[in-house]
Protein backbone atom coordinates (compact mmCIF):
# COMPACT_ATOMS: atom_id res chain seq x y z
CA UNK A 1 0.00 0.00 0.00
CA UNK A 2 1.44 3.37 -0.94
CA UNK A 3 0.74 6.66 0.74
CA UNK A 4 0.90 10.12 -0.74
CA UNK A 5 3.35 11.55 1.78
CA UNK A 6 4.00 14.55 -0.40
CA UNK A 7 0.38 15.56 0.27
CA UNK A 8 0.43 14.64 3.98
CA UNK A 9 3.74 16.21 4.89
CA UNK A 10 3.77 19.04 2.37
CA UNK A 11 5.77 21.76 4.09
CA UNK A 12 4.30 25.17 4.52
CA UNK A 13 6.92 27.83 4.01
CA UNK A 14 7.54 30.80 6.20
CA UNK A 15 10.46 33.08 6.84
CA UNK A 16 11.91 33.55 10.28
CA UNK A 17 15.29 34.54 8.89
CA UNK A 18 16.59 34.88 5.33
CA UNK A 19 16.45 31.08 5.09
CA UNK A 20 13.01 29.59 4.37
CA UNK A 21 11.65 27.44 7.19
CA UNK A 22 9.69 24.27 6.46
CA UNK A 23 7.01 23.14 8.93
CA UNK A 24 5.31 19.78 8.56
CA UNK A 25 1.61 20.14 9.41
CA UNK A 26 1.28 16.46 10.35
CA UNK A 27 3.65 14.76 12.79
CA UNK A 28 5.72 12.09 11.11
CA UNK A 29 4.79 9.70 13.95
CA UNK A 30 1.21 9.60 12.60
CA UNK A 31 2.33 8.27 9.22
CA UNK A 32 1.69 4.52 8.99
CA UNK A 33 4.92 3.69 7.12
CA UNK A 34 8.54 4.56 7.89
CA UNK A 35 9.26 7.91 6.31
CA UNK A 36 12.44 9.53 5.07
CA UNK A 37 12.23 13.28 4.64
CA UNK A 38 14.74 14.67 2.15
CA UNK A 39 15.86 18.28 2.22
CA UNK A 40 15.60 19.96 -1.15
CA UNK A 41 18.60 22.24 -0.60
CA UNK A 42 20.68 20.71 2.23
CA UNK A 43 23.82 22.63 1.25
CA UNK A 44 22.16 25.95 2.18
CA UNK A 45 22.56 24.92 5.82
CA UNK A 46 26.32 24.83 5.51
CA UNK A 47 26.70 28.49 4.64
CA UNK A 48 28.25 30.64 7.36
CA UNK A 49 25.61 31.94 9.74
CA UNK A 50 22.96 29.43 8.59
CA UNK A 51 21.50 26.63 10.72
CA UNK A 52 18.98 23.87 10.36
CA UNK A 53 17.07 22.96 13.51
CA UNK A 54 15.83 19.39 13.62
CA UNK A 55 13.59 18.27 16.47
CA UNK A 56 13.38 14.54 17.06
CA UNK A 57 13.13 11.82 19.65
CA UNK A 58 15.21 9.48 17.45
CA UNK A 59 18.61 10.11 18.98
CA UNK A 60 20.44 7.65 16.71
CA UNK A 61 19.31 9.75 13.75
CA UNK A 62 20.25 12.97 15.55
CA UNK A 63 23.72 11.58 16.16
CA UNK A 64 24.12 10.70 12.47
CA UNK A 65 22.67 13.96 11.08
CA UNK A 66 23.64 16.71 13.51
CA UNK A 67 26.85 18.54 14.30
CA UNK A 68 25.46 19.65 17.67
CA UNK A 69 22.71 18.19 19.83
CA UNK A 70 20.74 19.97 22.53
CA UNK A 71 18.63 18.11 25.08
CA UNK A 72 15.61 19.67 26.75
CA UNK A 73 13.44 18.67 29.71
CA UNK A 74 10.48 20.62 31.07
CA UNK A 75 10.92 23.23 28.32
CA UNK A 76 14.49 24.15 29.30
CA UNK A 77 17.72 23.38 27.47
CA UNK A 78 19.70 21.16 29.84
CA UNK A 79 22.80 20.41 27.76
CA UNK A 80 24.24 21.07 24.33
CA UNK A 81 27.27 19.78 22.50
CA UNK A 82 28.47 17.46 19.76
CA UNK A 83 27.15 13.90 20.02
CA UNK A 84 30.64 12.63 20.90
CA UNK A 85 31.14 15.35 23.51
CA UNK A 86 27.79 14.54 25.18
CA UNK A 87 28.48 10.82 25.25
CA UNK A 88 31.93 11.38 26.78
CA UNK A 89 30.66 13.97 29.27
CA UNK A 90 27.93 11.68 30.63
CA UNK A 91 29.66 8.34 30.02
CA UNK A 92 30.63 6.69 33.28
CA UNK A 93 30.02 3.02 32.51
CA UNK A 94 30.32 0.36 29.86
CA UNK A 95 27.39 -1.83 28.99
CA UNK A 96 28.19 -5.53 28.65
CA UNK A 97 25.61 -7.68 26.90
CA UNK A 98 25.96 -11.48 26.91
CA UNK A 99 23.61 -13.79 24.98
CA UNK A 100 23.68 -17.38 26.24
CA UNK A 101 22.97 -20.27 23.88
CA UNK A 102 20.04 -22.34 25.14
CA UNK A 103 19.33 -20.03 28.10
CA UNK A 104 19.50 -22.76 30.72
CA UNK A 105 19.75 -21.68 34.39
CA UNK A 106 23.09 -23.45 34.98
CA UNK A 107 24.61 -21.65 31.97
CA UNK A 108 23.26 -18.30 33.19
CA UNK A 109 24.69 -18.78 36.68
CA UNK A 110 28.05 -19.82 35.20
CA UNK A 111 28.13 -16.65 33.09
CA UNK A 112 27.21 -14.55 36.15
CA UNK A 113 30.08 -16.10 38.12
CA UNK A 114 32.45 -15.53 35.19
CA UNK A 115 31.46 -11.86 34.81
CA UNK A 116 31.91 -11.29 38.56
CA UNK A 117 35.35 -12.91 38.32
CA UNK A 118 36.52 -10.80 35.37
CA UNK A 119 34.61 -7.60 36.28
CA UNK A 120 34.01 -7.61 40.06
CA UNK A 121 32.11 -4.28 40.03
CA UNK A 122 29.72 -5.28 37.22
CA UNK A 123 26.03 -5.05 38.12
CA UNK A 124 23.39 -7.19 36.43
CA UNK A 125 20.65 -4.81 35.26
CA UNK A 126 18.58 -7.01 32.94
CA UNK A 127 18.11 -10.69 32.20
CA UNK A 128 15.57 -11.73 29.57
CA UNK A 129 15.50 -15.01 27.60
CA UNK A 130 19.18 -15.77 28.05
CA UNK A 131 20.37 -12.24 27.29
CA UNK A 132 22.07 -10.69 30.31
CA UNK A 133 22.98 -7.01 30.52
CA UNK A 134 25.56 -5.69 32.96
CA UNK A 135 26.65 -2.14 33.75
CA UNK A 136 30.39 -1.88 34.39
CA UNK A 137 32.11 1.18 35.93
CA UNK A 138 34.87 2.37 33.60
CA UNK A 139 37.62 2.81 36.14
CA UNK A 140 39.82 -0.25 36.56
CA UNK A 141 38.58 -2.04 33.42
CA UNK A 142 41.22 -3.52 31.15
CA UNK A 143 39.55 -3.98 27.76
CA UNK A 144 42.22 -6.41 26.53
CA UNK A 145 41.65 -8.64 29.58
CA UNK A 146 37.87 -8.58 29.15
CA UNK A 147 38.13 -9.43 25.44
CA UNK A 148 40.69 -12.22 25.89
CA UNK A 149 38.78 -13.78 28.81
CA UNK A 150 35.44 -13.80 26.99
CA UNK A 151 36.93 -15.09 23.74
CA UNK A 152 38.90 -17.75 25.62
CA UNK A 153 35.89 -19.11 27.55
CA UNK A 154 33.11 -18.39 25.07
CA UNK A 155 32.41 -22.03 24.12
CA UNK A 156 32.72 -23.41 27.66
CA UNK A 157 30.19 -20.85 28.92
CA UNK A 158 27.80 -21.34 25.96
CA UNK A 159 28.06 -17.65 24.99
CA UNK A 160 26.31 -17.21 21.65
CA UNK A 161 27.03 -13.48 21.27
CA UNK A 162 28.38 -10.62 23.35
CA UNK A 163 29.17 -6.93 23.13
CA UNK A 164 30.75 -4.18 25.18
CA UNK A 165 29.96 -0.55 24.37
CA UNK A 166 29.94 3.03 25.56
CA UNK A 167 26.91 5.07 26.57
CA UNK A 168 24.51 5.95 23.74
CA UNK A 169 22.82 9.33 23.26
CA UNK A 170 19.56 7.69 24.31
CA UNK A 171 21.12 6.75 27.68
CA UNK A 172 22.54 10.28 28.02
CA UNK A 173 19.05 11.70 27.50
CA UNK A 174 17.52 9.32 30.07
CA UNK A 175 20.23 10.29 32.55
CA UNK A 176 19.44 13.99 32.04
CA UNK A 177 15.70 13.38 32.42
CA UNK A 178 16.26 11.41 35.63
CA UNK A 179 18.46 14.18 37.04
CA UNK A 180 15.88 16.87 36.24
CA UNK A 181 12.69 15.02 37.14
CA UNK A 182 12.78 15.93 40.80
CA UNK A 183 13.06 19.68 40.42
CA UNK A 184 11.72 21.58 43.46
CA UNK A 185 8.78 23.00 41.49
CA UNK A 186 7.52 19.43 40.80
CA UNK A 187 7.94 18.11 44.36
CA UNK A 188 4.84 18.47 46.50
CA UNK A 189 5.67 20.61 49.50
CA UNK A 190 4.26 19.63 52.91
CA UNK A 191 1.52 21.87 54.27
CA UNK A 192 2.90 24.49 56.69
Structural key phrases:
192 residues; Alpha-Beta Plaits; single chain; 24% strand; four-stranded antiparallel sheet; disordered C terminus; alpha+beta
Architecture overview:
The protein is α+β, with helices and mostly antiparallel strands and 192 residues long. The chain folds into two domains: 5-87, no CATH class; 92-165, ACT-like. Chain A, domain 2 (Alpha-Beta Plaits, 2-Layer Sandwich). It is 30% helix and 24% strand. It has a four-stranded antiparallel beta sheet with strand order 6-7-5-8, covered by helices on one side. It is elongated. It starts with a helix and ends in an 11-residue tail after the last helix. Residues 1-45 and 186-190 have low confidence and may be disordered.
* Strand arrangement across the biggest beta sheet: 6-7-5-8
Helix content: 25-40%
Tally of helical segments: 6
User: What oligomeric state is this?
Assistant: single chain
Give the helix/strand class.
Answer: alpha+beta
Fraction of residues in β-strands: 15-25%
Mean pLDDT: 75
Outline the low-pLDDT stretches. Answer: 1-45, 186-190
The tally of strands reads: 8
Could you say which overall geometry the principal axes of the C-alpha atoms support? Answer: elongated
Radius of gyration, whole Å: 23 Å
N-to-C CA distance: 62 Å
Largest sheet: 4 strands, antiparallel
- Tally of discrete structural domains: 2
Provide the succession of SSEs. Answer: HEEHEEHEHEEHEH
Amino acid sequence: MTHDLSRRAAPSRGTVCPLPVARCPLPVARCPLPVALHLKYPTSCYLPGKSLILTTHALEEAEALCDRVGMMTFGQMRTIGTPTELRLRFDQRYKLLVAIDGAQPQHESAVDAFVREVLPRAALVDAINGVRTYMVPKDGVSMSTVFSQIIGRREALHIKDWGLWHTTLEEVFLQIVRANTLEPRFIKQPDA
